From TrEMBL:
Gene3D superfamilies, A to Z: MFS general substrate transporter like domains
UniProt name for this protein: Major facilitator superfamily protein
Transmembrane stretches, start-end: 55-75, 87-105, 144-165, 177-196, 258-282, 294-316, 323-348, 360-379, 400-420, 426-447
CDD domains linked: MFS_STP
Species in which this protein is naturally found: Theobroma cacao
Length: 462
């Protein structure tokens, strides 16, 4: 639970940015041109375009660009110094970024704060999923690893609730509180990283064999760990013979791991989930919800996200990874197409239609069906599968690829969504549905089942 709190950093930021960018006081302070464009009906060709601003999207996407860049450098820290220092650095830098965002007086300082948050997310996402996979026994590794995604969803929900409350603060400074409260999960991460033990895998990797065996006995709650410990030692010895993990992961024998570590995060982002998570208040506001209604709708989807992730925790080690990914993909396809059709019928090409209360409730319900499907499939498993399929000798490189591809396309979606919504209109939902169809077929054809397979034996199934 302590290690998984690293997901709070990622989740809180995902949830907080969309709510803040929908607050009039925040736009007035940093993006007055966007606020003027919203109020001037002649300034945009349709309702779909009233938030379209590259500078505004840079506020959200700059974090993910920083996380993308730092993920390559962050890969060396867990391998050389252990998993704990990487988590500590991530929490500390994220703390500094949250303070800068809370006191920012201009766009420049705001973006610098966002970049520091991105550095923190890059380090946390690099180390936490691997830490959880290495500490967990094989039979419950899926459930414990999903603790990371669970923390992400709790962070998103907490951010939605905080935004709903701070938007009501008189004086228009509530957005500062929303941004500054990111310091709380950062402090939790820093303290947790100090208190946690390192993983037996990491200790063996750095030559602390005796300490590693005692730690394995402690976390397994038994003295009888000889077989598992020998597997870890053998894997470490093989890994030490590999001087260049980045070069080795390109070898033919590791081709399945390379493909999965690249395509799984790619498809995870092109489900379109971050359209909902980043910009839920903005999206609901664009679709005709009022200020309070848009923020509350974001809270509702955040709550569904948390509850559905709990479903995944209890089912991933029982039913396996493939079943959840295939079922989740089918459910997302149906709900995305239904949302696209409904928006097309109710808003048309220029977005000039209106929603009745029944229509609004149905739209929120369909989006919740989509969020639930993602939350018990591609959300947690997009982090779990890449973190568990790589043998130790390429694990740091594989996780770096996973994080960097994830951040690259998170950046792409965050930076282009408002423009895509403006130009593609309701077709945007069909655009993402095509990718969900593609990735569901990919999983059916190529993903092996990794349930109950020890990480040191993963090569035999990949």
């Amino acid at each position: 639970m302590v290690a998984a709190m690293g997901g709070l950093l990622f989740g809180y930021d995902i949830g907080i940015s969309g709510g803040v960018t929908s607050m009039e006081s925040f736009l007035k302070k940093f993006f007055p041109s966007v606020l003027e464009k919203q109020k001037d009906e002649a300034a945009h060709e349709s309702e779909y375009c009233k938030f379209d601003s590259q500078l505004l999207t840079l506020f959200t996407s700059s974090l993910y660009f920083a996380a993308l860049v730092v993920s390559f450098f962050a890969a060396a820290v867990p391998r050389t110094f252990g998993r704990k220092p990487s988590m500590f650095i991530g929490g500390l830098v994220f703390l500094i970024g949250s303070i800068l965002n809370g006191v920012a007086m201009n766009v420049g300082l705001l973006i610098i704060g966002r970049l520091l948050l991105g550095v923190g997310v890059g380090f946390a996402n690099q180390s936490v999923p691997v830490y959880l996979s290495e500490m967990a026994p094989a039979k419950i590794r899926g459930a414990l690893n999903i603790g990371f995604q669970m923390a992400v969803t709790i962070g998103i929900l907490a951010a939605g609730l905080i935004n709903y409350g701070t938007a009501k603060i008189e004086g228009g400074w509530g957005w500062r509180l929303s941004l500054a409260l990111a310091a709380i999960p950062a402090i939790m991460m820093v303290i947790g990283a100090v208190l946690l033990p390192d993983t037996p895998n990491s200790m063996i990797e750095r030559g602390h064999t005796a300490v590693a065996k005692r730690m394995l006995q402690r976390v397994r709650d038994t003295q009888d760990v000889d077989d598992e410990f020998q597997d870890l030692v053998d894997a470490s010895e093989a890994a030490k013979k590999v001087e260049h993990p980045w070069r080795n992961i390109l070898e033919k024998r590791y081709r399945p791991q390379l493909v999965l570590c690249t395509l799984i995060p790619f498809f995870q982002q092109l489900t379109g989930i971050n359209v909902i998570m980043f910009y839920a208040p903005v999206l609901f506001k664009t679709l005709g919800f009022g200020d309070d209604a848009s923020l509350m709708s974001a809270v509702i989807t955040g709550l569904v996200n948390v509850l559905a992730t709990v479903v995944s925790i209890f089912s991933v080690d029982k039913f396996g990874r493939r079943v959840l990914l295939l079922e989740g993909g089918a459910q997302m396809i149906i709900s995305q197409v239904a949302v696209g059709i409904m928006v097309a019928l109710k808003f048309g090409v220029n977005g000039e239609g209106t929603l009745s209360k029944t229509d609004a409730n149905l739209l929120v319900f369909l989006i919740c069906v989509y969020v639930a499907a993602f939350a018990w499939s591609w959300g947690p498993l997009g982090w779990l599968v890449p973190s568990e399929i790589c043998p130790l000798e390429i694990r740091s490189a594989g996780q770096a690829i996973n994080v960097s591809v994830n951040m690259l396309f998170t950046f792409f979606i965050a930076q282009t969504f408002l423009s895509l919504l403006c130009h593609m209109k309701f077709g945007l939902f069909f655009f993402f549905a095509v990718f969900v169809i593609t990735m569901t077929v990919f999983i059916h054809l190529f993903l092996p089942e990794t349930k109950n397979v020890p990480m040191e034996e993963m090569n035999r199934v990949c």
